[in-house]
Structure prediction request, 177 residues.
Amino acid sequence: MEVAEGAILTQNTSWKNAESALRRLKGKTVDELLDHDSLGDLIKSAGFYVQKERYLRAFLRYYSSKIESLSLPTDARNELLDLKGIGKETSDSIALYALHQRTVPVDSYTLRLFNRYLGTDYSMTDYEEIRTALIGVFNQEQLMEFHALIDEHCKEVCRKFPRCDSCSINENCLRNY
Prediction:
């Protein structure tokens, strides 16, 4: 549940701010969150809290009624995509990390690393192409690790203004800064 909440709360904000909101949700059941009069107050630090409250409530209603019956990755992904406020990246994050299904989110870190390391010029319009290629190469467990490693590397080293001198794959980077 925390993975799904985090995927929703981190939309258009830093993980630090989303994490602060997650701490206030921790330990509460789905029913407690759905019954909470001002869920927005609990998640305010995540920004866009009025919208995110609607998205989170929609997900919680969905979760309480359907999540346990899903078995195929495409079922979860497509059903999640039908929820207001759940896009491809959020849906794939929930499906991969919470439901352990074979998919992968293509986030800005993935694009940054691929564009710099592979010399490509991918954008979010290439989301499905990249996602499909990765699913074709890696199994579910590898996808989780691969995506987590990319995110960690880009948060610490391959930042917007990269720290190439501390990069372990720098010698193979096609866009050396």
